[in-house]
Amino acid sequence: VQLQASGGGLVQAGGSLRLSCAASGRTGSSYVMGWFRQAPGKEREFVAGIDKRSGNSRHADSVKDRFFISRDDNKRTVYLQMNSLKPEDTARYYCALDMSGRYVSRGQSDYEYWGQGTLVTVSS
After folding, report:
1. How far apart (Å, rounded) are the C-alpha atoms in residues 72 and 91?
2. Which end of the chain is more exposed for a tag (fewer CB within 10 A), N or C?
3. How many angstroms separate the CA atoms of 1 and 4, rounded?
4. In this structure, is the dihedral angle defined by the CA atoms of residues 94, 44, 53 and 112, taken in order, positive or negative?
5. Per-residue pLDDT tens listing for the chain (124 residues)
6. How far apart are CA 23 and CA 29, in angstroms?
């Protein structure tokens, strides 16, 4: 399984970006895809995740009502629409895949595959 993330860039505070993560290889029919982020000097944290089979999603409190995760099953692609961006959203964003597909976990250790990350920089 390979994950290819894209869509990062430089944006002013209050702006929007959409990240994409395309999965390839043998993902199976039920899996969970998530987004995590890591800011300089901080630990990686959960941002959002979505269950491919049920469509159930969850978002971290820090991004709720600003970020929205969605999926396109035909393309095996997950999107993260980021609105009302703040300087504290600056981080490298990683997509990840959990093959078990049991539930949308916030735990990094539940995700077996990771993309290379895409950098999001929000200027004030």
Report:
1. 25
2. C
3. 10
4. positive
5. 999 999 999 999 999 999 999 999 998 888 999 999 999 999 999 999 999 889 999 999 999 999 999 999 899 999 999 999 999 999 999 999 999 888 999 999 999 999 999 999 999 9
6. 12
Phi–psi pair at 121, nearest 5 degrees: -125, 125
Q: Would you say 118 and 19 are in contact if contact means Cβ atoms under 8 Å apart?
A: yes
Give me the residue label for tokens 């979505």.
Answer: 50
The number of CA neighbours under 13 Å toward the Cβ of 32 is: 23
Residue 115's CB: how many other CB atoms inside 10 A?
Answer: 22
Residue 75 vs residues 22, 23, 89, 122: alpha-carbon distances, Å: 7, 8, 27, 28
Using alpha carbons, list the distances in angstroms from residue 36 to 29, 53, 60: 22, 20, 10
| Spatial separation of the C-alpha atoms in residues 70 and 93, rounded to whole Å | 16
